[in-house]
């Protein structure tokens, strides 16, 4: 049986760096040069970006994430569950932006009603609420995209890709959208929308018996119902959509904009209009490449994300390349922003790439610091006052000391390059962990690797701090809140159950971990990734004949998968929810 361990790797190529065995860095604020162990962070590389952040209260639409080149027409992909409103919004987008609307559902329905060979093949799949085979749909879409009007006016792709294989087909043809829009609507609303939907076969308009009835009796009389709009079939379509959504999103993660589709259609369109107008404007004015997300230095990461299709490769190569680091900073940042914009306030980021796993001798404190700076600056860029908090030294007498991986970090944070816009001391402040750190001006808090240390339990301080923060977001970066017994008992006023309950109250907004065979750290078997608000994605790492590697999506999970679930997915077994972890599994689950 395949046994998978989730510990991170240690590689022979690694630059050895362990905070507890290394000397405190010598800091020189004027030159920002660091002696070992931080010497890999040159003054320049400590700036993370080739340019400094321009601190401003952003007027741009939040979360606009695009990548495009000048003088090309818009290329838009719109996705979402059945009846999320794709067709309805496409009508409005076409009216305003004149793009060529390519809806695979409409193309297939036209084939069915014309009784063509394709239509006859597609019919049974559609009527059963299943996906039509990839090769049929892909041939239709690529043929349509290659027509001159799509090239001249730009395109709006609706309902394609609908599977990872379809997304890959486009990637292989180098067909990428400028923006990937996902309409988000709760399941219970979708069923009603489908069952009440009616189509006008004459003008192609979409109506709803209750929400958007037609104006005239004449139109009403000719409306038709889609064969796949029964409750049962909608449920099956929805299930299929969910099974595929994460894998497709991972292909377009860097271009994804999620829109709340459960609002009046005009309101939804207002958001889309603003996104697309901004994108169009940017295409017309920016000289080379436009990436609007936080004036991003991360465009390199984004372009590679396409190449990597979800997970960067060569993760066993330490130190990680700047591209890989930027990829992860960007991935974490987007997830965190989505969670905060969604109103979540108690969040945790758990990123266990080899460089960020303190249990391994390839751990690099600078990578953690860069990640923290990236997140803090981005929120500050949106006008938020961010307090970056590092746990202070703890304990008394022989038990005094810094928790693992935090030695010297506060100093590093203070001396890091926070840009030329005066962010440090205004929009960014450095603090510690505890209720007294929370002042009225703070909008949010980023806590760097809070952890329990022998003799101390951070939970009480943390709890006091979150109580004081109230509804303001508190984000824990790589926390280690296991309930360690404190030998001195200092500050452990809360009972064990309460401590565990409190530690669990932080919601995961980002999770990444590599998977290995049990007891090994090589080769990488796969990876688990979760970015808010999406499911946990399980990937298998595959060696290609060319000597390269890639990560192939295996499955998705709404909750973090157990070791048994991962194992079953790797060997292709159906899910068995009742199975209990035992023996080696119990141990691994504990690690996991
Ligand atoms: P397709 O036609 O693409 O169906 P779908 O993705 O299931 O989406 P729908 O058309 O049902 O919904 P929609 O999001 O466009 O919503 P709409 O605007 O109409 O595909 C059909 C089938 O073809 C698939 O099941 C599959 O078999 C096959 N197929 C297609 N593409 C394929 C591919 N790539 N690969 C394989 N097979 C493929 O709105 C729905 C209703 O809600 C309407 O009544 C509308 O009036 C109402 N409404 C819309 N917006 C709002 C709002 N804001 N508030 C209230 N009501 C609203």
UniProtKB/TrEMBL annotation:
Subcellular location as annotated: Plastid, Chloroplast
Ranges of compositional bias, category Polar residues: 294-306
GO annotation, cellular component aspect: chloroplast
SUPFAM superfamilies: Microbial and mitochondrial ADK, insert 'zinc finger' domain (SSF57774), P-loop containing nucleoside triphosphate hydrolases (SSF52540)
Keyword Chloroplast set for record: yes
Ranges that cross the membrane: none
Pfam families named in the record: ADK, DUF1995
Alphabetically ordered keywords of this record: ATP-binding, Chloroplast, Kinase, Nucleotide-binding, Plastid, Transferase
GO MF annotations in UniProt: AMP kinase activity; ATP binding
Record domain DUF1995: where: 325-567
Catalytic activity: AMP + ATP = 2 ADP
Listed EC numbers: 2.7.4.3
Enzyme class: transferase
Keyword Kinase assigned: yes
Broad class of where this protein is predominantly found: plastid
Chain residue ranges for the region called Disordered: 294-313
Subunit architecture: Monomer.
Family of this protein: Belongs to the adenylate kinase family.
NCBIfam families: adk (TIGR01351)
Full protein name: adenylate kinase
Native source species: Hibiscus trionum
Lineage: Eukaryota, Viridiplantae, Streptophyta, Embryophyta, Tracheophyta
């Amino acid at each position: 049986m395949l046994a998978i361990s989730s510990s991170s790797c240690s590689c022979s190529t690694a630059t050895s760096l362990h905070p507890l065995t290394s000397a405190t860095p010598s800091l020189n604020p004027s030159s920002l040069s660091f002696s070992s162990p931080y010497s890999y962070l040159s003054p320049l590389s400590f700036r993370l970006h080739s340019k400094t952040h321009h601190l401003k209260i952003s007027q741009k639409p939040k979360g606009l994430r695009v990548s495009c080149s000048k003088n090309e027409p818009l290329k838009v992909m719109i996705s979402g569950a059945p009846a999320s409103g794709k067709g309805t919004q496409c009508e409005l987008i076409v009216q305003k932006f004149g793009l060529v609307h390519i809806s695979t559902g409409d193309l297939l329905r036209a084939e069915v009603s014309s009784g063509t060979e394709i239509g006859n093949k597609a019919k049974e799949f559609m009527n059963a609420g299943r996906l039509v085979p990839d090769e049929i749909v892909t041939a239709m879409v690529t043929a349509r995209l290659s027509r001159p009007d799509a090239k001249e006016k730009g395109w709006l792709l609706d309902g394609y890709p609908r599977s990872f294989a379809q997304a890959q087909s486009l990637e292989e043809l180098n067909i990428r959208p400028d923006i990937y829009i996902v309409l988000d609507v709760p399941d219970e609303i979708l069923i009603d929308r489908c069952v009440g939907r009616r189509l006008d076969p004459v003008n192609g308009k979409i109506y709803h018996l209750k929400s958007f009835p037609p104006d005239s009796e004449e139109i009403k009389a000719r409306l038709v119902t889609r064969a796949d709009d029964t409750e049962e079939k909608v449920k099956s379509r929805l299930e299929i959509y969910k099974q595929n959504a994460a894998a497709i999103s991972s292909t377009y993660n860097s271009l994804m904009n999620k829109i709340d589709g459960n609002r009046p259609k005009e309101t939804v369109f207002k958001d889309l209009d603003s996104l697309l107008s901004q994108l169009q404007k940017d295409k017309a004015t920016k000289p080379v490449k436009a990436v609007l997300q936080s004036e991003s230095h991360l465009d390199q990461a984004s372009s590679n994300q396409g190449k990597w299709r979800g997970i960067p490769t060569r993760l066993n190569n330490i130190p990680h390349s700047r591209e890989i680091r930027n990829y992860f900073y960007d991935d974490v940042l987007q997830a965190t922003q989505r969670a905060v914009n969604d109103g979540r306030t108690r969040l945790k980021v758990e990123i266990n790439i080899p460089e960020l796993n303190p249990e391994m001798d390839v751990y690099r404190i600078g990578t953690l610091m860069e990640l923290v700076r990236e997140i803090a600056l981005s929120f500050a860029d949106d006008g938020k006052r961010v307090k970056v908090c590092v746990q202070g030294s703890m304990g008394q007498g022989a038990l005094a000391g810094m928790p693992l991986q935090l030695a010297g970090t506060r100093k590093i944070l203070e001396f890091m390059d926070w840009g030329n816009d005066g962010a440090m001391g205004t929009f960014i402040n450095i603090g510690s962990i505890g209720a007294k750190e929370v002042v009225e001006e703070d909008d949010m808090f980023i806590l760097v690797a809070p952890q329990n240390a022998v003799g101390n339990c951070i939970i009480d301080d943390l709890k006091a701090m979150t109580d004081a923060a109230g509804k303001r977001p508190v984000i824990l970066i790589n926390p280690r809140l296991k309930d360690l017994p404190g030998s001195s008992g200092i500050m452990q006023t809360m009972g064990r159950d309460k401590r565990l309950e409190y530690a669990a109250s932080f919601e995961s907004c980002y999770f990444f971990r590599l998977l290995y065979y049990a007891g090994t750290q090589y080769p990488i078997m796969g990876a688990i990734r979760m970015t808010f608000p999406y499911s946990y994605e399980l990937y298998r790492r595959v060696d290609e004949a060319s000597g390269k590697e890639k990560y192939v999506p295996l499955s998705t999970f709404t909750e973090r998968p157990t070791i048994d679930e991962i194992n079953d997915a790797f060997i292709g077994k159906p899910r068995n929810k009742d199975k209990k972890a035992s023996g080696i599994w119990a141990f691994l689950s504990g690690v996991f």
